[in-house]
Amino acid sequence: MNFSKLTLAIATLLGASASSGAFAIDLYVDTKTKQLYAEPGPGRQKMGSFVQVDEAAPKPAAKAGDTDEIAAVREDLALKTNEIKALQEHMTETEAVKVKLGDKGLEIESSDKNFKMAMGGRLQLDGQFNENDHNIPQNARLNNGAGVRRGRYHMEGTLYKDYDFKFEYDFVRGNGSTAAGITDAWAEYTGFKPFSVTVGQFKEPFSLESVTSNRFLTFVERSLPNNAFIEFANPYLLGISGQSFGERWTARAALQAEPIGGGGYNNNSSLNNQGNANRNGPSGNPTYGVTGRATFLPIFNSKTELLHIGASGSYRTVNNTNNGANAATAAATGGANTTSPTGLAFASQVSDVDRSNWANTGILTDTLGTPNRRVLKDYYRVGAELAGIHGPLSFQSEYIRTQLNGTTYDSSDHLDGYYVYATYFLTGESRTYDAKKGAFGRQKPNRNFDLKNGGWGAWEVASRFDALDMNTAHVNGGRLQSGTLALNWYLNPHVRVMLDYSHIFSNKTINTGFVGGTRGSLASNTSGQNPDIFMVRTQLDW
């Protein structure tokens, strides 16, 4: 008897029976022709009753009267049934989880969307070459060099649909103090969409350029006023915020204290440089403030033709710990220690690798023993935004002003700055606008760079002018004006190369007569210099 054909015939019969529902069937074999029949007849021997098996079953026992060959057929059928069931279960498990490389990194999502997880990071490799003025001493020159500007890893996701979270660490951030590398560390409840509440450490909702991720910036570095009034003092602060958005608007307000760990940043007024991350020493009593930002699209014809306006406001109290005693430590060191817990200052660099602060207010709270003492008690900031997209052409501009208040300070002590720039895509793309954040997002080329298939990625040219003025009657922080030309090559949405050329047009620091104003400032070395700065960045994010 040819049992390989017999097995195939039995499997075919059972498959047909499975398609119409599970039922038992008797099979008969003609003892002469070896042909199978479903009904008894002359010369036919009953093989047995067969039924569809839906669940894994143990090896079937041979029935009385079965031949060894028939028992082997039974065993083979049971094994095939188990294999098919295992394959079906594996396919079901595969469909339950989706994995892809998305905007947030390697994204994993359950089929019911209850749970999401994304793991990713960014790497920004920078280089800088400078053409300094002649006859400038080495300690006053901008230095050439190369370095890692940012090296971050993040994990974010969703739990039970309504709870979002994110944790991010920058391995080159801060000065190595406890928790200095933590940027985002928050949880968010989104059950009242489009309204949500965030608790933890997150960036201040202030300024279009600051809210836009550094992954999506047009230039290697943010503008002078943004660096001085927002980024320099560490914008990642611990607190709570509420936010909402619509098709053409966004709004967010936050109550925030100081960052997790001091990290040597100048908005940390805790009793030590470790901030509240220090477990074995005094801390607490931080500064705190409220910040809000709102945006609107008065023109929104499409994603490639829109006009954006926005406004930001912030008020922050300054805790002068021990009545300014900690600032005396900085005074005793000649003002070099602007990272004193009470040494709040505003400053900005002019380049990416050499991040010397060419504009610097120095510590804004003097010791009580100085003849002309100053005590910064609070300050507020306001900002205005204007940006637009028209096909491959776009522009962006902001004005930011900071008013200082306290002993000796008056209404004339306001620091301000602005920038304006235009950008154009030679390959026809438009800048990407993120309506949920009221900021710009990831740029996707029309065709990724691919030598084999002829794609050249996206090419963008841009030009910016920015200015910062921190010279007042009681502050000699410096006045800077610079211009930048940029060429950006987007090989694909996750890899880009940036080339910037900057020139310092104006660089002047005045002498106010206040000792505190000169501390931490590079005025004696850099005032009057007008260098040319060449910067390059290779960026990958995933």
UniProtKB/TrEMBL annotation:
Gene3D superfamilies: Porin. It comes from the Bacteria. Keywords: Signal. Coiled coil: none annotated. Residues 1-24 form the signal peptide. InterPro entries: Porin_dom_sf, Porin_O/P. SUPFAM superfamilies: Porins. Pfam families: Porin_O_P. Residues 266-283 have a biased composition (Low complexity). Residues 263-287 are annotated as: Disordered. This is Phosphate-selective porin OprO and OprP. It comes from Candidatus Methylobacter favarea.
